[in-house]
Every structure is written in structure tokens, then in C-alpha cells.
Amino acid sequence: MSEEFREIRFTLNGAAAAARVPVRRSLVDALRQDFGHTGSHVGCEHGACGACSLVLDGAVVRGCLLLAVAAEGAAIETIEGASDCGRLARLQQAFYERAALQCGFCTPGMLLTAAELLERNPHPSRDEIRRYLCGNYCRCTGYEAIVDAVEAAARG
Amino acid sequence: MKPAPFAYRRAESLDEVFTTLREFGAEAQILAGGQSLVPMLNMRVARPAVLVDINRIAEIDYLRSEHGGVELGALTRWRSLEDWPETGSALPLVAAALPLIAHPAIRNRGTIGGSLALADPAAELPAVSLALGGEVVLASAAARRTVKAEDFFQGLYQTALTPEEALLALRLPAPRPGERCAVYEVSRRHGDFALAGAAIVARDGVYRIALFGVADRATLSPAAASLAAADPAAPAAAFSDALAQDIDFLGDREHPAPVRRHLAGVAVRRALDRLAAAG
Known about the structure:
A: alpha+beta; 6 helices; 5 strands; 35% helix; elongated; B: alpha+beta; five-stranded antiparallel sheet
């Protein structure tokens, strides 16, 4: 079967964006390859690891499980946009102070997911933090420092 | 790990969905949330010629209290159910199962219709639908029909859907006075696929017990329900024996069939304990 292409248009971190992509290309691949936004990482490509997390119309989703073509008309926020606008600053500082990252591969997904948790539940218990981050793998830290950092950010 | 090429159709209406399904039949695959389908595309386990994206069809994205129960449009995302103020009171078994369904980011996107139509044996909602005695609404260009959950799930990823049909809605009955329910799931990591799970509805000493993650499909076990009625305190091993009368346990390399059989008994036992604890 020949490759089908489509023009897609969406808002990327607040700015209009467009590209012509193969319809089978995932959103995370499109963001990395077509838009140069490499902060969303490609890990397992089947929804298990959470490294590709990004925000679609206000909700954190798996960038590997969304076709780029399906994002037509959507508002996409990547870790680049979320970081630059400052909405993650408190979490980022807490991650830094608690050494809640080592290699950094999982960190964008951890930050976006933790930020969504704190929006929905500003004062989560440690168990609630663990449950909300259950879809994000970290192979360095053993999670304890990450939970500490989210807890610290929630305390403010 | 990228999908094989396919053609992409974004449907703006149900008519377009039906027309495309009629044109391409089994070569077409409906794309809803994609949280199970896209991994299958990426791994090339699924290789449809045409993907029919239904995410723009607002008329199947709804939650409606009616007919003594709730009708859930096929495009209802798990997150909508988590945020719906009536879920806890109108759909307590669904509310209990929601935290077990994958991870938060997957619940933001995944749909109830996708879960039912895919019929993954480890999925929670098929078993919840069986335990509650729910029914699904299916439609093609030619006709619309209602199928009981018990008749809908027919095997490993096999359902009563014909290639020309789409699943439009799920109907679940409202809890009756005195009804109690519980769900319990064994998994390697919170949110991972169930290794064994049980969904239970009980009222006046009568039980409906549905298992998931242990066979080729979600399955009701009348034998386990009879045992629960006769001896609610029976041990897990007794439930494993009862379940074996109704269920053909399926294993894999890490968890062979005897392990699933054991875990299924444990899941029923613990779900019953939750039921008792809930009053």
C-alpha cells in the first residue's frame, strides 16, 4: 500500500503550526521530526512508559498512541511550552532540589503528569501521587525522590 | 515499531462511518481513543487497510441517566466518567473499576466503546457489563440492534459486531435498593493488564460474578455465584474450583493456566471481602 499523506494544522504551544505528514505517523514522532520539539521522548511506543507524554486540549496523553493526523485542530502543549510559560516552575525546582531525576528521559512526562495531578488534586497523599504517576516509568531514581518532589511542590 | 501503511478517513457523522464500513468491510477498523488499537498497529498485530476515525462524532459522546439506568455513548472517555458527578451513585461498579483501568494519561483518551468493541480479555469494562447485566447498542447503515453483554463477548477479541456494524452505546442498569458491588484485580503494576480480576454484584444473597484476565474473554461464573450464595466465607481455593466449572483458564509463559486459576480464586475472595467491608 502506498503512503498516504495529509496536511495537518494545530496550535503548538500557543502558535499556529502546520505540516504534511504520513497518516501513520504518531504525534510524538511528528513533533520531534517535523517540528523539532524533542522534549517528548519516544520510549516503548505502546503506551506503557509515559516518556512521550504531552498535553492535548488540556489533558495529558500518550504522544505515541495518537496519530498526528488525529490532532488536526487541537491545542498541543509539549514540555517545551509548559516549561517556558513557567507553569511547571515549582515542580521543576522541587525535582532539582530533591534530585528527582538522573538521566532525564522520563522527566518531561513526570512533570506534565504531576502538574495535571496537582491541578486536579492540589494536596495529594503520597499514595495518590504514586497512583497518578503509575503510568510513567523511571529507570533511575526508584521513584521515592520523585514522590518526595511532587509532595514538596504541593506543599509550596 | 511503526504501523504499516493504511488509509485514513476522518468521519464527521455516523452515516460516514457506516458508508465506509459498508465499502471496506473487515478491511476497515474504527479508531476511537486508540489506546489499545494504536499499540496493536505499532506492533503490526493489527493491519487494517483503512482507519475510520470517529473522534469528531459528538453525538456518541454522552452520559445519560434514563430507562432506570445509564446510557453511555461509545465515545465516552474514561476521564469523563471519572469527572461525571453521577458516576458514584448511578454506576458504583464502574466507579470502583475506573481507577484500575490503565493509567491516568490513557484514561484521558481511551473510550468505553473501544474497550467493549476490542474485547480484550483483561479489560475491566466487559466484566463489569456482564456482572451488571448490561447491553450494547450496535448499528449499521441498515439496522440498529441491542445485544446483551452475555451474548456480545464471544471469544478472544471476538464480539457479536459484524464488519458493517459500529458500537454506539452501552446501557447499564441503575443499582437496585440493597444492591452491593465490588471489583478486585491482581496486576503486576497498578494500571497494568489484569492477571486476574473479579467484578461482583450482590443483592438479597444472590450473586453475579464475572471474571476477567483469566480466559479468552470476560466470563460470568454461575458456579462461583452459587458458592458465594451458599458460603460467602468460602476460601479462595474453593472459588478456584468453582470457577473451573465455568471457565477455560488461559495461561501465558509467565502466568500459566494453573496460576491464573489460583489468582482468579484469590480475586473473587478479595472482591467478596470488599463487598462485606462495604456493608
